[in-house]
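Re-run with default settings, no changes from the original entry. Doing this only to confirm the output is reproducible before filing.
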Amino acid sequence: MNLRIFFKSMRFAFRSRRRIFAFIIIYAVLYIMVGKGLEAPGPDWWLWPIVAFSVATVYAILISQFRRRDIAILKCVSWSNPDVMLLLIGEVVVVSISAFLVVFQLTVEVLGVTQYFVGTTSTPLVTWLTNYITISAGPMFITLFLIVVLQIPGLILAQFRANHIPPMMAIREE
C-alpha cells in the first residue's frame, strides 16, 4: 500500500470542508444511534447494522460522484486505479475516525461534567444527556468496527464507479 497517497488523500478530503463536516456530524449521530441500539439489545437490534450499512454505502457513492472531476484529473496525470481507491479509502477513514473521536470526546466530557458539577444528584438535563449521548466503551468500539466493516461494500461500489471515469472528463465542459 502506498502510504504517501493514503495520507495525501486524508489531506485532500478536507478540501471539501462542508461535505466532510456534514458527514462527520452524520456519522457521529450514526455512532450514537448504533451504539445505543447495541447497548440495549432488543428484538430489533439487527436494524442498526442495516442503518450503518446504508449510510456508509451512500457516503461512498457520494464521494465517487463529487470527486469525478478530481479523479479524472488524477487519471490524466497517470494515477492508477489502486491509487484512486486509496484516495476514496482515505476520505472514508478520515470521516469514520473523526466521527468516532467526536463521539468519544463528547461521551467523556458529558460524563466528566455531570460527575464534577452534579455528582450524585440528577436533573432532567443531566439525565437526558447521559441517557441519549453517552455510550459505554464496549458498544462504542463494536460500533466503530461495524461501521468500518460495513463501508467495504460501499467502497467497492465507489471503486467500480471511479474506475469507469474517463480521463477525458477532466477537460470536458459541464
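DSSP finds eight helices and no strands in the chain. The chain has a mean pLDDT of 82.
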